[in-house]
Automatic annotation (TrEMBL):
Segments forming domain ABC transporter: 6-239
Entry coiled-coil feature ranges: none
CDD domains: ABC_Iron-Siderophores_B12_Hemin (cd03214)
Domain of life: Bacteria
Homology family: Belongs to the ABC transporter superfamily.
The name this protein goes by in its record: ABC transporter ATP-binding protein
Record-linked PANTHER family: ABC TRANSPORTER ATP-BINDING PROTEIN, HEMIN IMPORT ATP-BINDING PROTEIN HMUV
Keyword Nucleotide-binding among UniProt keywords: yes
Keywords: ATP-binding, Nucleotide-binding
Keyword Nucleotide-binding: yes
A molecular-function term among this protein's GO annotations: ATP binding
Length: 259
């Protein structure tokens, strides 16, 4: 897998001319960097992610991967470069875990060609990266929420993307699997855009953070500059305290409704 540079240039979106849900957003993300998109419910995180994985076409502006406009590529070309792990999961519950993960190879297969030995190897690696080998033959519909989430990450890994988009990747996961997924994601050599609700997690995982508030970019930059009590108050309407953990000295945020 290799990593792409992501440039978002004045990208906005709304379902009609009269309604803008995402006001123009611009940012540049270096290859291999991890961007965390945070904000209150309804702030526009999923909408921005949908533009980045080419589900929605920007009403204004562009999304560029290594300088190439996502909407000037074919859907298939884009699918070879961008993979997404979404909160909505597939409804083909009767497929096995291995079959679902193998769907990630589809953009790389030509025509009706059967998967090659290399494709099978990539699928096996994705299954073992997500510790799913023991579940490979199980029907997707029989898995727990956390197991399903790991299958969706494995499918995205099998796609060998240059940019991986994750919408709340730790949903449904217990603490151990949350930490494992985050560590795995962090060690991938791809560019990552992830929405997160946990600001402490965003601060420790991400190289850059974008705070959205009511469909507008409130702040963008390294976590220490962006996740500040002032911005948190403005975006979430809560009081935020930055404390230092002992003995690591790492910053940790706590929140309250009033001082
Ligand atoms: N097609 C649409 N038509 C009308 N409104 C929409 C449409 N899509 C999204 N919205 C609204 O736009 C706002 C932003 O939605 P979005 O899903 O991007 O928020 P979010 O930050 O991901 O929220 P959450 O944290 O709750 O998942 C919400 O108020 C949502 O109801």
């Amino acid at each position: 897998m290799c990593a792409a540079r992501l440039d978002i240039e004045e990208a906005s979106w709304g379902p009609s001319r009269a309604l803008t849900l995402l006001h123009p957003v611009s940012l540049a993300l270096a290859p291999g960097a991890c961007l965390g998109v945070v904000g209150a419910n309804g702030a526009g995180k999923s909408t921005l992610l949908r533009l980045i994985y080419r589900y929605l076409k920007p009403r204004t502006g562009r999304i560029l991967l290594d300088g190439e406009d996502l909407w000037r590529m074919s859907a298939r070309q884009a699918a070879r470069k961008v993979a997404a792990v979404l909160q909505e999961q597939p409804t083909d519950f009767s497929l096995s875990v291995r079959e679902i993960v193998a769907l990630g190879r589809r953009p790389h297969l030509s025509g009706l060609a059967a998967p090659s030995g290399r494709d099978q190897e990539i699928v096996s690696r994705a299954l073992s990266d997500m510790q799913l080998h023991g579940l490979a033959a199980r029907r997707f519909g029989t898995l727990s929420g956390g197991e399903r989430q790991r299958v969706m990450v494995a499918r995205a890994l099998a796609q060998e993307p240059q940019l991986l988009v994750l919408d709340e990747p730790t949903n449904h996961l217990d603490i151990r699997h949350q930490l494992e997924i985050l560590e795995l994601v962090r060690n991938l050599s791809v560019t990552i855009v992830t929405s997160l609700h946990d600001l402490n997690m965003a601060a420790s995982l991400c190289d850059q953070v974008l705070i959205l508030s009511s469909g507008r970019a409130l702040a963008y930059g390294p976590p220490a500059e962006v996740i500040t009590p002032h911005h948190v108050q403005a975006a979430f309407g809560v009081v935020c305290h930055r404390e230092q953990l002992h003995p690591s000295g790492r910053p940790h945020l706590t929140f309250s409704l009033s001082n």
